[in-house]
From TrEMBL, chain A:
Gene label: msrP
Record function comment: Part of the MsrPQ system that repairs oxidized cell envelope proteins containing methionine sulfoxide residues (Met-O), using respiratory chain electrons. Thus protects these proteins from oxidative-stress damage caused by reactive species of oxygen and chlorine. MsrPQ is essential for the maintenance of envelope integrity under bleach stress, rescuing a wide series of structurally unrelated cell envelope proteins from methionine oxidation. The catalytic subunit MsrP is non-stereospecific, being able to reduce both (R-) and (S-) diastereoisomers of methionine sulfoxide.
Top class in the EC scheme: oxidoreductase
UniProt PTM: Predicted to be exported by the Tat system. The position of the signal peptide cleavage has not been experimentally proven.
Residues where Mo-molybdopterin binds: N75, Y78, E79, C132, T167, N215, R220, S231, I232, K233
Similarity comment: Belongs to the MsrP family.
Name recorded for this polypeptide: Protein-methionine-sulfoxide reductase catalytic subunit MsrP
Gene3D superfamilies: Oxidoreductase, molybdopterin-binding domain (3.90.420.10)
GO MF entries: metal ion binding; molybdopterin cofactor binding; oxidoreductase activity, acting on a sulfur group of donors, quinone or similar compound as acceptor
NCBIfam families: PRK05363.1
Limits of the Oxidoreductase molybdopterin-binding domain: 96-248
Protein keywords: Metal-binding, Molybdenum, Oxidoreductase, Signal
TrEMBL record, chain B:
Segments traversing the membrane: 75-100, 106-122, 142-158, 164-181
Membrane topology of this protein: Multi-pass membrane protein
Protein's recorded name: Protein-methionine-sulfoxide reductase heme-binding subunit MsrQ
Cofactor: FMN; heme b
Localization in the cell: Cell membrane; Membrane
């Protein structure tokens, strides 16, 4: 059902006017949105915004959202290629339907969800900053639902302390997965309280449309206070576990990638200084904010922890 | 043949400027500029070092005449690389730049490499060669540590070490061919 060639995607100015048309409702039914996309483009032609414009859409700090063009053409997705501009082309046509996600491990009600089951959950828009460990960032209007809602459906047992996520392993469609340098499939993890935090979402769309394959279709994690690599894409498996999962990057370079990977200008990565960042679409560097600007909401999760130790 | 070195060395710059003019760079053009000038600088530096061993292999004398232009073109790209880093990316913000140098060993290695290449570029003229006399050759051996530092710079900044290791291996081979017992006469 959700296999949308990029040519059918509504450009974001159209989306913006549609969004205005809908009265800026915070929570929209994804079913309605996805039904609308690909079949008709109502209000198209009524927009006056030029290509790439994101008139009015900002994050809560007032910074404008990046354009769909920027968001869909500069991707770190090593399952396809390490070339950020090459991902879009290689990911085109990636099969995202049918899609199932099994949620299990230390839970009372293990379940396999079809992607449609997850779309039936109420979808809402979240405009988040995405900060890559390579010291660039974007502002992205995601569509999705809090991860906590999904986890509640399977009823985590008291022994569950961490959540482990796994990306689909499909080397025939993902050429980067044929590269044996990496211990595929991609794995990421969160502490259970991090996973239950309201800011952590499962994203199913961007600018009100289904995710494009290069952005992690059909569904991905978005944890905005952590470096982008924590926000695992194309998820097929979620397990609640007792011990801290070992992510792909931890396995590959344990000295460089910690489990927490919270955005922190004071903890320097061996390769990139994290003190400042380049916002895509702007020229000047800007200082990096602790927890990517979400400190007020998430710092309490780490009370008493030495964040230099637990990087 | 030797005159082809000029258009060929300028291809990376031409592509970069052309793509920039046509809007074909990525949405992170400053990054493109830094990476592509750095890569061109390193490749040209290795080509510079390849001339002497290749001449010994083939006996083609004209290869030796390529060293100077290749070295200078390498320096051109490395200079653009530094401008992209310090001026375009960091806006000459000295606090941020010195923090980057202090924090990142790869920036330190790059700077060190550049500092060794600078006097070589400045003394590349015939006049300087005459003035320096017998000191000119030992001075220009600085290209060896400069190249090693540049390769280390690349190794330390890359997320995946494969490509930098290939460059290091090639460099190691080029330097080993200069050792007396491997020297092909
Ligand atoms: C002058 C001091 C230098 C500074 C401040 C500097 C800085 C940088 C920076 C910031 C990057 C990008 C790192 C990243 O974003 O991941 C980079 C990449 C690179 N630099 Fe330098 N650099 C310097 C000198 C050099 C020299 C002398 C060479 C070679 C002769 C060189 C070759 C490279 C290469 C090959 C790359 C990687 C390109 C790629 O990944 O495709 N750099 N440098």
């Amino acid at each position: 059902m959700v296999k949308i060639p990029s040519s059918e995607l509504t450009p974001e100015p159209v989306y913006l006017s549609r969004r205005a048309f809908l009265g800026g409702a915070g929570a929209l039914s994804a079913a309605a949105l996805l039904a609308a996309c690909g079949t008709e483009r109502f209000v198209s032609g009524t927009t006056t915004a030029g290509p790439g414009a994101t008139a009015g859409l900002t994050d809560e700090l007032g910074d404008p959202a990046n354009s769909l063009d920027q968001i869909t053409n500069y991707n770190n997705y090593y399952e396809f290629t390490t070339d950020k501009e090459g991902v879009a082309r290689l990911a085109k046509g990636f099969t995202t339907s049918p899609w199932e996600v099994s949620v299990g491990g230390l839970v009372a009600q293990p379940r396999t969800f079809g992607f449609e089951d997850l779309l039936a959950l109420e979808q809402e828009e979240r405009i988040y900053r995405l900060r890559c460990v390579e010291a660039w960032s974007m502002v992205i209007p995601w569509l999705g639902f809090p991860l906590s809602r999904l986890l509640a459906l399977v009823e985590p047992r008291p022994e569950a302390k961490f959540v482990r996520f796994e990306t689909v392993y499909r080397p025939e469609e993902m050429p980067g997965q044929r590269d044996r340098h990496y211990p595929w499939p991609y794995v990421e993890g969160l502490r259970l309280d991090e996973a239950m935090h309201d800011l952590a979402i499962v994203a199913t769309g961007i600018y009100g449309h289904a995710l494009t394959p290069q952005n992690g279709a059909p569904l991905r994690l978005v944890v905005p206070w952590k470096y982008g690599f924590k926000s695992i894409k194309a998820i097929v498996k979620i397990d609640l576990v007792e011990t801290m999962p070992v992510s792909l990057w931890m396995a590959l370079a344990p000295m460089e990638y910690g489990f927490y990977a919270n955005v922190n200008p004071d903890v320097t990565h061996p390769r990139w200084s994290q003190a400042s960042e380049r916002r895509i679409g702007t020229r000047a560097r800007r200082p990096t904010l602790p927890f990517n600007g979400y400190a007020e909401q998430v710092a309490p999760l780490y009370a008493g922890m030495d964040l230099r130790q637990h990087y | 043949m030797p005159s082809a070195v000029h258009p060929l060395s300028l291809i990376p710059l031409g592509l970069l400027l052309g793509e920039a003019a046509l809007g074909l760079l990525s949405v992170n053009p400053i990054q493109d500029l830094i990476l592509r000038t750095g890569k061109a600088g390193l490749v040209l530096l290795l080509l510079t070092l390849a001339c002497t061993p290749l001449k010994r292999l083939t006996g083609w004398k004209w290869l030796l005449a390529l060293r100077k232009p290749l070295g200078l073109y390498s320096f051109l790209y490395v200079s653009l690389h530094l401008v992209a880093f310090a001026v375009i990316d960091f806006g000459l913000d000295l606090a941020l730049i010195s923090q980057a140098i202090a924090e990142k060993r790869y920036v330190l290695a790059g700077m060190a490499s550049f500092s060794l290449l600078l006097p070589l570029a400045l003394t590349s003229t015939k006049a300087a060669q005459r003035r320096l006399g017998r000191w000119w050759r030992p001075l220009h051996r600085l290209i060896y540590p400069a190249a090693l530092l540049a390769a280390l710079h690349y190794l330390w900044l890359a997320k995946v070490p494969r490509e930098p290791l290939i460059f290091l291996a090639i460099l190691g081979g080029l330097l080993a061919l200069r050792l007396p017992w491997w020297r092909i006469r």
